[in-house]
Amino acid sequence: MNRGERGRREYEGLMGRRPEEALGEVLRTSPQMFEAVVEGAFGGALARPELGRRARELASVAIIAALGGAERRLASHVRGALRQGIEPSELLALCEHLSVYAGFPRALDALAVVNGVLEEQGLPKPPLMHRVALADHETIVAQKGDHGPAVILSHSLGVDWRMWEPVMERLANGRRVFAYDFRGHGGAAGAPRPFTMDDLAADLLGVLDAFDVDRAHVVGLSMGGGIAQTVAVRAPERVASLALLATTDHAFDAFEGRARSGEDDGMEAQIVPTLTRWFTPAALATDPWGVRYARERIRRLDSADWAAAWRAFKGLDVQGRIAGKDFPTLVLAGEADASTTPEIMSGIAERIPGSTYRELPGTPHMQTLERPDLVAAALDDFLPADRQSRRPPPRG
Ligand SMILES: O=C(O)CC1=CCC(=O)O1
Fold first, then answer.
1. Contact 176/151 with Cβ under 8 angstroms?
2. Interface ipTM > 0.90
3. Most buried among 88, 124, 247, 381, by the most CB within 10 A?
4. What is the pTM of this model?
């Protein structure tokens, strides 16, 4: 393959368009410059495989943004970065990072370009963030949607509210959706320890109180499902419906070992056993955003918070105590879940007569991080929404 062919191939691989199409104006007005860009740059240094395409695009965005004054090129590399699977939240974090090294003027211009591209591609805007004071600590709450029934999302052990971000936009159509960090995690890291499932249930209710919500649709995944069930047992009058995703209604023998391993071996040692329980081999091989996010969250968690959460989870005491409660329940299993298997999940459904059991094909434990489309569709089917009240008034 000659340098021109290599350059064309690399350009298309990175940017997703043929260079003749994307740089048509350059080709028409300066074939020499077109050749220098495609053959010289994209067929040369930019084609070297030592830097993967995702790292390369992130570096290109950072360099062009730091230079300043090349906003059209910046926009085109922001599109390239999105194409390589970099998430909007990662690009926004990159702009913040840029402010440290290149100053605020360049960082703010870069932010405007990133926002412009996200808008042009119809990508969701980040949720509204609130800082909320609970009984003995502060947490953060992400909100999407400003009318309709309230939905509260409780995340899994080891991550934070952001694991819900891939489904929040769709759920917020006709609903007020709140995703918060439970104690020991994200914005609530370092909250008082030890703690119990009852403390975690009280924190969820504290978040509802902070937004004047009397009754909410309570959705929890994994340990978040344990918290949701504890709320359903302790305060059923606050629950409009219950959605239990990839969870359990009883403690596993492994929980204490996981707590102790965090304390003895550190968080780096938790990454392989945890991620291989949470994701499919295909996701681990391709390393999409959900896997990168979960890996970083585990790596950065304080091992004392990790251990405290597993020990709280050991005290889960809900089995057989939800039957007969006056709200609908959805039990959503992942067909490929190695942790809370379909067998465990169908057992939960059997113990809640009248509940609906659904199994998502090919879906592992971290449902929202690997198959957000399927999860959003299942929850959208199950949860009521108000899609009437915001319609424009009839004319005349
Ligand atoms: O496997 C995990 O990491 C988490 C988990 C175990 C039981 C459950 O509900 O979540």
1. yes
2. yes
3. 247
4. 0.95
